[in-house]
């Protein structure tokens, strides 16, 4: 089921998420709905707060980047991941810049600096623990989605001058003045 995506200005996007256990009610259904929602909005990542759930969960699907040098080829298990209770434990000093967007901030894309490499401890959908190092697009998307779990949006990480330039758009968005081709709230 496709869920509405909360947009900049919604309180749920600015709150801290909580850790979950395997007993969390309807977790598999929430994950399935998040994938349906992400695909319906043409996204590559989605965090639970973006669909109104203040839990430490996000999903990533980088299938469209298959063939890039940091992406494994032809293996959906390696291009789609579920992260439960993640923690970024290390990050490189090497920084990369890239223009990002967000389903919760429709129509705004800005340059964001992020660590090139990160190590993440997380649980998968079966609550099996993992410690993995990610680079390139994986590292970028994980950092972006991870910030949602702490109540942060990517626009918080743009250069100060750019923040000033998009302030009126963000204010209008919080008042419901935006366009999105997907269901929002």
Quick description:
The chain is α+β, with helices and mostly antiparallel strands and 185 residues long. The chain has one domain: Peptide Deformylase (Alpha-Beta Complex). The protein has four helices and seven strands; from the N terminus they run αββαβββββαα.
How many angstroms separate the termini?
15 Å
Structural class by helix and strand composition: alpha+beta
Backbone shape: globular
Mean pLDDT: 94
What proportion of the residues is helical, as a percent range?
25-40%
Contiguous low-pLDDT stretches (5 residues minimum) are 71-76
| Biggest beta sheet attributes | 5 strands, antiparallel
The helix tally amounts to 4
Order of helices and strands, N to C? Answer: HEEHEEEEEHH
